[in-house]
Amino acid sequence: MNAWLERLVALESEVEYKTPPRCGEGEFRFQAGSLPVLVSAPHGAAHTRHGRLKEEDDFTAGLARLCGELSGAYVLYAWRKSATDPNYYPDVPYKQALAQIVRRYDIHFVVDLHGCAAYRDFGIALGTMQGQSLPREYRRLILRLLYRHGFRAGGGWLSRVDVDRTFTAGNGSRQETITRFVSQRLGVPAVQIELNSYLRVVRRRPQASERDPFEGDATMIERTINLLVGLVRAVARYTASDGFERGSPTKL
């Protein structure tokens, strides 16, 4: 196992998927950065929707943290069981913290990381609310970067990219996804990225909600790390140019 994967396992080991926050702890944590990009992992631990516990998107918290370490992005991630679903309900603590971070650190772009099942017929799914969550130039930038790292719409299985089909980031639904919240209420471009288990889970942990043993594809996980780091850096460069223009946020 190379150093990146070892570090990913170490970072993920601090997440307790189904343990409520202890006294003095919160359900989520913040990791400071140096670039005006925030990587979010709201489903890093188990969460609650309509009174039912939903399983975690394992290794999304670890990936977000590792991406932050390698790229300089700010990171907000769930690390304890949540009594709400940050990617569904409005006005929850996670979103309140996210709004404060965006304002305090002048965040120009948000990448919201999620995980999908290994049976999916793609490696990565992008959700942009059919292009409503970010300007067209950002969409083109992200698709070019994906292609450069071997991910494209016509790729085979784990190299295939699904764009605004399976996961749209909540366009047309009552669900307030992080991407919808950031783009519509904060006026900041955002994208939802769903990663197949093979692209993020180094080795399933014993305390995971999914009990069957599972190991991802080490080569594809490394490629995904490179992609995320490259995405943060590329977006940061673009926002530093004249190309960035903040939207009109809704008052909270």
TrEMBL record:
Top-level lineage group: Bacteria
Query: Gene3D superfamilies attached here?
Result: Zn-dependent exopeptidases
- The protein in question is named N-formylglutamate amidohydrolase
